[in-house]
Amino acid sequence: MAKDKFTPVYKISDFNAVDFLNLPDGALEFETKIDQINYRHDLFTKHYKSDFFVVFLVTKGKVIVEINLKEYCVAENSLAIFTPNDLRRNNFSNDSAQYSAVVFTTNFFAKSGMFGSASDLINYFSTQFSPIWDLKRSEARSILGFIKQLSRRKETLEEHPFGKQLLYSTFHTFLYELAGLSRKYMALINPAISRKENLVRDFTELVQKHFVDDRKVKNYANKLNITPKYLSETVREISGKTAGDIIDLYVIQEAVLLLNNSKLSISEISDRLNFSNQSFFGKFFKRHTGLSPKKQRNAH
What we know:
Layout: E1 2-3, E2 8-10, E3 30-37, H1 42-45, E4 49-50, E5 52-60, E6 62-67, E7 70-75, E8 78-82, E9 88-91, E10 98-105, H2 106-111, E11 132-134, H3 137-155, H4 163-185, H5 195-210, H6 217-223, H7 228-239, H8 243-261, H9 266-272, H10 278-289, H11 293-299
Parallel strand pairs: 2-4
Antiparallel strand pairs: 1-2, 3-10, 5-8, 5-10, 6-7, 6-9, 8-11
């Protein structure tokens, strides 16, 4: 568990300590939960933040949550969306409440291949909009179906030769389904996007354009007329990642795309991504993915 000066910031693995997700130790980036009982624990009753996104659907009863100091009642068939930037606290209402959830980090989103290319798709993950959507029963059933699909994909990840690709594909479809519903339920509660969120968007757009030629945080900070420290702190606060992490994510995503979908040699890909040599590219890639470029290509 990481902490800032006042508020604890939890990782997915921290919930294992209270038997919430029953997850193995280690760096966890994606999880689902089906018909989770409204678990009571001090971990949830005090204000906290997380380094992951949460989409959860109440399937029975109701759950009272506090998001950014505002209390919401999430009733049956209602959807709640939390971001790493949200200040949260759970005020439990009854022991019979149940929900199903999808939990994922920025890193998982990037690895899925959508990072930077889907800003319109996930703009509902913003403090501009209400985090609670009161769905129709048929819509709630559809979302629950997607959550169950994601759960099955994760459980059978190692059993299928393309298990990871199937998980990512199902995750993308889930996001598209949410995007479609957002057009109907995304209520504007803050007319102006926060200055920090706007800064992260501007930074992300710059990185998307220049990550091949420029990987220095200070250069992006200069373009945005802020200090590198402030840029990294703001990006971490909003996304859960540092500015350097975001740049690296773009590089890795492009590298994976080229390795999986081009006839370029590894040396040519290294040159295209502006690495000084193939050896340095290989070490960079393995540090971030756990695989060598060759193994990545062979695994696809």
